[in-house]
């Protein structure tokens, strides 16, 4: 045993022990690539993929393939856009936690912690855990920009544009193309720079 312990000691005073054979130091390029992939993966927590999918299914129906023959069709199209954007906004304030049995429970973040909405049994969080789920200013920015991303995606739908704005001018057509693209780029960069740590309704769960 003494021989083994001696072999594990540093060779010279002041030097650290050799690193584990399984862990190789990463090059600057590898570290930069890892950070890029990690930041891009955080986009799935904020981009409204599920809401967009539901909207793309409903938009041909409510817009009557872009014709919008009456006021009711126009109002339903606008109502679906507003409700979908509100859904994106609300989902940014949801989060999940595992109870004592290991089951995932969903809740709404509040200024005091997390309010569980899908469990009849109270889930008690310690003050340290409650602080992690507390509402922060960044949550409101995430919610606002997620709603903007959805509106930008909706404006790329030609059926929606024809219904809400049937005869746009040349300048309006250019704006309808440029503005949604700029919104998507700016919001995506913001999401990468300031990722969300929440794993709420419709978002992938963390390992914890």
Give a description of the structure.
By secondary structure, the chain is mainly α. It has two domains: 47-92 and 137-196, no CATH class; 94-134, no CATH class. The chain is 54% helix and 7% strand. A three-stranded antiparallel beta sheet has the order 1-2-3, with no helix packed on it. Helix 4 (71-91) runs antiparallel to helix 6 and helix 6 (137-155) packs antiparallel against helix 8 (170-193).
Sum up the overall morphology in one term: globular
- List low-pLDDT spans: 1-8, 10-21, 36-42
Output the radius of gyration. Answer: 25 Å
Distance between the termini: 38 Å
Indicate the multimeric state: single chain
Report the major sheet. 3 strands, antiparallel
Derived from helix and strand composition plus strand pairing, the structural class reads: mainly alpha
Count the domains. Answer: 2
Helix content: 40-55%
> Helices and strands, in N-to-C order?
HHHHEEEHHHH
Q: Would you report the number of β strands?
A: 3
Task: Considering the chains and any ligands shown, give keywords for the structure.
single chain; 208 residues; mainly alpha; 2 domains; 8 helices; globular; DMP
What is the strand and helix layout of this fold?
Elements: H1 2-8, H2 28-41, H3 49-62, H4 71-91, E1 94-98, E2 104-109, E3 114-116, H5 127-133, H6 137-155, H7 158-164, H8 170-193
Antiparallel strand pairs: 1-2, 2-3
Helix pairs in contact: 3-4, 4-6, 6-8
Family: Belongs to the plant DMP1 protein family.
GO cellular component, one term: cytoplasm
Membrane topology: Multi-pass membrane protein
């Amino acid at each position: 045993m003494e021989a083994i312990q001696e072999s594990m000691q540093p060779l010279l005073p002041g030097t650290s022990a050799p690193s584990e054979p399984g862990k190789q130091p990463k090059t600057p390029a590898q570290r930069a690539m890892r950070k890029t992939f990690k930041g891009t993966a955080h986009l799935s927590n904020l981009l409204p993929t599920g809401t967009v999918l539901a909207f793309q299914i409903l938009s041909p129906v409510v817009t009557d393939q872009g014709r919008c023959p009456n006021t009711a069709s126009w109002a339903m199209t606008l109502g679906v856009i507003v409700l979908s954007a509100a859904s994106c906004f609300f989902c940014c304030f949801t989060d999940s936690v595992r109870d004592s049995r290991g089951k995932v429970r969903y809740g709404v973040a509040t200024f005091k912690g997390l309010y569980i909405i899908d469990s009849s049994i109270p889930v008690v969080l310690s003050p340290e855990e409650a602080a992690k789920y507390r509402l922060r200013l960044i949550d409101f920015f995430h919610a606002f920009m997620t709603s903007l991303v959805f509106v930008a995606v909706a404006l790329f739908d030609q059926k929606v544009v024809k219904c809400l704005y049937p005869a746009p001018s040349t300048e309006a057509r250019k704006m309808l193309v440029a503005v949604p693209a700029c919104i998507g780029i700016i919001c995506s960069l913001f999401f990468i720079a300031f990722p969300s740590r929440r794993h709420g309704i419709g978002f992938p769960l963390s390992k914890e």
